[in-house]
Design a protein that fits this description.
The chain is mainly alpha-helical and 115 residues long. It has one domain. The protein is built from three helices and no strands. α2 packs antiparallel against α3. The longest helix has 46 residues.
Length: 115
């Protein structure tokens, strides 16, 4: 008779192949690259609207002769857009986690049905 503890002992660790020959460093570097990609995406989604708004505002202020009207207006707009992007990334990550959890549950249920 096998219990849940025996099943855990038989299953490979996350990030390891079924044969167990995959190096743990490869799994950690893959997750490290994924983290780097997420951080850089987050940075670009925050920086580009804010800096772009300031630069465009400065350019428009120079052309129109205003002091800081366009610069401040477009800075505020850039901050609003940046936080909107941040919120959308947060929602997207939440959906991915939910989908991943559902996929794992379906996989586990199908595995239990086979036994």
């Amino acid at each position: 008779m096998t219990g849940p503890r025996d099943q855990l002992d038989q299953e490979p660790l996350p990030g390891a192949s079924a044969s167990g020959k995959e190096k743990p460093q490869q799994a950690s570097s893959a997750s490290g690259m994924g983290l780097l990609a997420r951080v850089s995406t987050l940075a670009w989604n925050l920086v580009i609207p804010i800096v772009g708004g300031v630069l465009l505002g400065y350019f428009l202020d120079q052309r129109s002769g205003d002091s800081l009207t366009w610069t401040l207006s477009l800075l505020v707009l850039g901050v609003i857009i940046a936080f909107s992007n941040l919120y959308n990334l947060y929602i997207e990550q939440g959906r991915e986690k939910i989908d991943h959890a559902e996929h794992n549950n379906q996989k586990q249920e199908s595995h239990e049905e086979e036994k």
